[in-house]
Structure formats: C-alpha cells, structure tokens
Design a protein that fits this description.
With about 150 residues, this protein is α+β, with helices and mostly antiparallel strands. The chain has 6 helices and 5 strands; from the N terminus they run αβαβαβαααββ. The longest helix is centred in the middle third of the chain and has 29 residues, at about 75-105.
C-alpha cells in the first residue's frame, strides 16, 4: 500500500512491479492532514482491484473516517489529484475575493444593496476604510539625467 500523493503514472508502475513479484497493491492517498491522522478521521482514496481494496480496508479502518474505492489501479491517485485541484481553486478564489474586497469595500456594499441585504456593519466599516490611514512610507524622487524625467521610488 502506498498512501503518499504521487503521480498516476508512478502509481501504475508500482501496481505492475508489485504484481510481477506476486503481491497485491493499492494506491491509497489520504486527505485530512495531521489533525485527521491524530483523530483517526482521514479520508483514503483507494485505487486497486476490489479484493485487494477489501483486504487493505482492514488495515486502514482504524485511521479512517472515510474509505472510498475510486476504481482500478492509479485511480486513488487520480482522485487525490482532483481533490487537490479543487482545494487550490477554492483557495485561489478566496484570495482573489479578499484582494477585491480590500481594494473596494464599496463593491460589496453595492452588491448587498442590489440584492436587498441590509449591511449596517459593513456600511460603518466602509466609512473607516475610506479614511486614509497615516503612513510611514518613505518616497524618493530620482531624476534620470539623460531624459530629465523623474521617477518616484
């Protein structure tokens, strides 16, 4: 059993190499992190034939909150890669939304007004957000002799 997250091609090579030696194998990457491991609530995504998966489940069950047989050889890794992609897409969307909200709190208020949501707390925070905060930044102005242009650094 391999519970790491690796590429599908390598998982397929492992299935083949192990079978050639007369052993059974499953690719069984996990999701749930350190806290899931400590709590015994990991999700195992298992790729392999049904009989081997059934045998592996006996070993995995004490660590798992959920066991999903995703299909034949390599499919555990395929499922894990899709799981990671969905996680990263959601993280990217949250990051982009946070940047947008930080740039224009008024955009969120406008959306709330258009949908009929009463946002008094957000309205109060907009007033504060529009008040420039004191800065401690230093600005240097440099004149470029050849062009006589100035650049703010």
């Amino acid at each position: 059993m391999d519970s790491s997250t690796i590429d599908v091609e390598t998982a397929l090579e492992l299935h083949k190499a192990v079978a050639e030696k007369g052993f059974a194998f499953v690719d069984a990457p996990v999701s749930g992190g350190i806290s899931g491991a400590a709590a015994g609530t990991l999700t195992f995504m298992i790729g392999g034939d049904k009989d081997t998966v059934a045998r592996a489940e006996q070993v995995i069950t004490p660590m798992a909150g959920r066991i999903v047989h995703t299909g034949g050889p390599g499919m555990g890794q395929s499922a894990k890669i899709v799981n990671n992609m969905m996680l990263f897409v959601n993280l990217e969307a949250c990051a982009e939304g946070s940047v947008l909200a930080a740039k224009d709190v008024g955009l969120a208020l406008s959306a709330g007004e258009q949908t009929g949501v009463d946002l008094p707390a957000a309205a109060r925070s907009t007033t504060r957000a529009q008040t420039p905060a004191p800065t401690t930044s230093m600005v240097a102005v440099k004149t470029i002799p050849e062009t006589n242009n100035t650049t703010v650094v």
